[in-house]
Amino acid sequence: MLSLKISGLTKVYLNGTTALDQVSFSAQPGEGIVLLGANGSGKSTLLRCILGLETATSGDICIGNWQISQLNSQQLRQMRSQLGMVFQKFHLVGSLSAFHNVLHGALGRSTSPRYWFPATAPEIERKRAMECLDRVNLTHFAQQRADTLSGGQQQRVAIARTLMQNPKLILVDEPVASLDPQAGKEVMDLLWSIVREQRLTVICTLHQLALAREYGDRIIGLRDGKIQMDTTVNYLQDRDLTMLYEPEFGVRCSELGIREIST
């Protein structure tokens, strides 16, 4: 398990846009954090900074014993091998089988070309890939092309690929945004059951407040790149959400699944 500590994280783009403004929080091993906020609030930028895909303008990110701003390219690759990422758009290779896509999750542990092809991958890795597919209930689709699977099935393949990395911390960016409600609920149930059984730290961005309440241990709300709310789910109240979604709050209450609040 890995701890995460973010201190004074600021990201300003070249055009002057401030995506993150002095963001600070810590995540303990095994904790499930949901990031909430309107579009443009900084949620995805925060995940990209944690993963090292964006370079912060200032501030520190410490993951375990790694301080991201001090890592060279080799050390950054080593750090990323401990992190799993589940994307909204799956990022599978559609022309390859589900099994082949999951096998690619081992590439973080080795750059050997053997890992690119099922026929040449070590037997222990092929076995591990099938175990990961079994964990997401897709062994019977192992040899099927990824682009012939449903959206929910593709997201489950993506989760299996993440498991193949054997991550200690998982970052999840809008995992159900492109799925219908039933498929989205199934994906969240599956993802969180894996997180709980392996006691993984997870940071997940969501728009669906009902899902945030159901799955998150802790809710961190962002607005204009700043933390506006940091609370456990038991203390989350509807009125707290006005800080995150105004001025669009009045027209989005039904969409967000919360009651209209008089001012």
Automatic annotation (TrEMBL):
SMART domains: AAA
One Pfam family in the UniProt entry: ABC_tran
InterPro entries: AAA+_ATPase (IPR003593), ABC_transporter-like_ATP-bd (IPR003439), ABC_transporter-like_CS (IPR017871), ABC_transpr_PhnC (IPR012693), MetN_ABC_transporter-like (IPR050086), P-loop_NTPase (IPR027417)
Molecular-function GO terms, alphabetical: ABC-type phosphonate transporter activity; ATP binding; ATP hydrolysis activity
Residue span, ABC transporter domain: 4-249
Transmembrane segments: none
Key words, A-Z: ATP-binding, Cell membrane, Membrane, Nucleotide-binding, Phosphonate transport, Translocase, Transport
PROSITE patterns cross-referenced by the UniProt entry: ABC_TRANSPORTER_1 (PS00211), ABC_TRANSPORTER_2 (PS50893)
Matching CDD domains: ABC_PhnC_transporter
Highest taxon of source: Bacteria
GO CC terms in record: membrane
Entries under SUPFAM superfamilies matching the protein: P-loop containing nucleoside triphosphate hydrolases (SSF52540)
Alphabetical list of PANTHER family matching this protein: AMINO ACID IMPORT ATP-BINDING PROTEIN, PHOSPHONATES IMPORT ATP-BINDING PROTEIN PHNC
Protein name (Swiss-Prot/TrEMBL): Phosphonate ABC transporter PhnC, ATP-binding protein
Taxonomic lineage of the native organism: Bacteria, Bacillati, Cyanobacteriota, Cyanophyceae, Oscillatoriophycideae
